[in-house]
Amino acid sequence: MADRSTEQEVEQALAEDRLAEAARLLRSLTPREVVGLIERTTWRRGAVVFRLLGKDRAMEVFERLGSTMQGELLRGLQDEDVARLFAKLEPDDRVRLLDEVPAAVAKRLLATLDADELATTHLMLGYPSRSVGRQMSLAHVTTRPDSTVAETLERVRERARDAATVYTVFVTDHERGLLGVLTLRSLFESDPAREVGELMQPAESAPVDADAEETARMCEALQEPIPIVDSEQRLIGIFTIDDAHRVLQDAEAEDIARAGAREPLRRPYLSTSILYIARSRVVWLFVLAISALLTVQVLEIFESTLEQLVALALFIPLLTGTAGNTGSQAATTITRALAVAELRPGDIGKVLFRELRVGALLGLLLGSAGFALASLVYGLPMGVVIGTTLLFVCSIAATVGGAMPLIARAIRVDPAVFSTPFITTFCDATGLVIYFTVAKAVLQI
């Protein structure tokens, strides 16, 4: 494996247009290191790197790139290079790439395919964008129930080079109806003359229009490929463990980004333009800024209360920050539980009661500390106000934070998108209302 200095030498050679030297240095890099090099540069320079690779090595590097980076790299390649790369992709990889490029480019890419590949690609493009049908592999090994173990093993050998996996064999009837599943291990351990219909086990399948992320969770739980079937239970493709890991990684990256009030970049940071990074953040900043106006309105309503006791203003950041953090913690916990199918929208009653108790316990602990500190500095009445407010805001924030992801899922909205701005706005505004209401009652102002 080449060290970091070799990659820096390649970058320097490319910057100075010493292409022959760059090509020589690239030969000492692994495909993974070449991918890292392309991901850290612009699409124009990435295309130059790509052209300096041999054909076989170039294909290996291209397959390792994400679909977004593949689409951008194609912009800098000649038409014959594009056609060759596109034709060699697996149908599911091809469909993901088509989703990333403009419609005009997608049309031109499809025109380079032969009739069979075009039909296969159109088939997968016909499924909903987030369905497992867009993510499945069409290359799998099947056998008939009346085939012998020896015949099935021979079929595995014939398909080994092209199939997405050979460790699982699917048993179908003459109309491709899914009957069962076999493992390669069970075939090796059985009598070669035995019929596979006696060995097969029931198969856990998923419909072709099922949500890809839900199917990935199912695949991860079973730790085996999932057969994908149509409405008549005919086998269409398979969803492998590798497919599941990729889908879950993408979903996790998207959730983390949106929980941080931004859109996912979908490409490596250093190869992303400044304009795109700013665009991925500015929408949420506007949403949060507009929602902050509600907080301003609450402060304006209680302006006279603040004028009577300026010390109240000192605790506003503490209370709103604690409320927001408590709500976000609850939302993150419930979003994760929804993602791994530990909860359903119908569990909202249980979640509300549970988070109310969790929030009350947190509020009691934080409120006790707030009561002690505020009492020492500002007197006992102020301590009662801070302690009581923390108890209330933590209870309410945890309850609302726990409910939001479930409500979002019920109305078919991404919980990570829905929860963050709502919780921020609600906790800030509600926390201030509670704070000033308690203060007026206790301090008689």
UniProtKB/TrEMBL annotation:
Q: Which residues form a coiled coil?
A: none
Against SMART domains, the record matches this protein to: MgtE_N (SM00924)
| InterPro entries named among the record's database cross-references | CBS_dom, CBS_dom_sf, Mg_transptr_MgtE_intracell_dom, MgtE_N_sf, MgtE_transporter, SLC41_membr_dom, SLC41_membr_dom_sf
Is this entry keyworded Transmembrane? yes
Q: Which keywords has UniProt assigned to this entry?
A: Cell membrane, Magnesium, Membrane, Metal-binding, Transmembrane, Transmembrane helix, Transport
- The Magnesium transporter MgtE intracellular domain, residue ranges: 29-132
Q: Which family does it belong to?
A: Belongs to the SLC41A transporter family.
The protein in question is named Magnesium transporter MgtE
* Source organism (scientific name): Ruicaihuangia caeni
